[in-house]
Amino acid sequence: MPQTGIPTHNDAIHAFRDFSLGKSNAKFIVFAIRDNVIQVESTGTTHEELVNAMPHNQCRYAIYKLVHTMPSEIDGFNDVVRSKDVMIMWTPASSGVKDKFVYSATRIPLKERIGFSGLGIHAGTKVELEESEMLAKCKSAFKQ
User: Fold this and answer.
1) How far is 31 from 16, CA to CA, in rounded Å?
2) Is residue 35 included in any domain, yes or no?
3) Does residue 18 lie in a domain region?
4) What is the pLDDT of residues 12-69, one digit of tens each?
5) Is the predicted pLDDT of residue 144 greater than 60, yes or no?
6) Three-class secondary structure of residue 64 per DSSP
7) pTM of this structure
């Protein structure tokens, strides 16, 4: 995929670093391309806010802290709560071809610029943003 020359705003880089180091209470960060720069569009603390932050006809990126419980495989031990940062590439069917291309072409450079090394998934519908769906995609990726 060709890389675009769209820069990432320093505030976006710092917002992600604070997020990944736990210096932020946010559960997600939404990034958007505005004025030919990747910028933080919004942050929030709930899954519902993430779903509502995704526009129905425009692409976005989001980093989401997916928290889930893994059942203990040993009797007498508590279940384990795990957290995984996931990059979501939001590409709804109603978004334009150019929008999809630009977001697709800038995904890897964005990951490199902000220092994201976690798992990435694609979503285009609100159903695909449900935590159970995201968790299933993550588990599927780990099996490959």
Assistant:
1) 10
2) yes
3) yes
4) 999 999 999 989 899 999 999 999 999 999 999 999 999 999 999 999 999 999 887 6
5) no
6) strand
7) 0.85
The whole domain housing 81 covers 10-143
For residue 104, the domain's CATH number is 3.40.20.10
Comparison of pLDDT for 118 and 28, the residue scoring more = 28
In a domain, 102, yes or no: yes
| Residue 81, CA atoms < 13 Å, CB-side half-sphere | 2
60-70 vs 28-34, strand pairing mode: antiparallel
Strand order in the sheet with 119-123: 37-44, 28-34, 60-70, 80-90, 119-123
- State yes or no: pLDDT of 115 exceeds 80: yes
Beta-carbon contacts of 136 under 8 Å, excluding residues fewer than 6 positions away, are none
Structure tokens at 75: 């009797």
Q: Which amino acid is at 70?
A: M
In a domain, 4, yes or no: no
Contact 44, 29 (CB under 8 A): no
Quote the distance between the C-alpha of residue 63 and its chain's center.
Answer: 3
Q: Domain tally for the chain?
A: 1
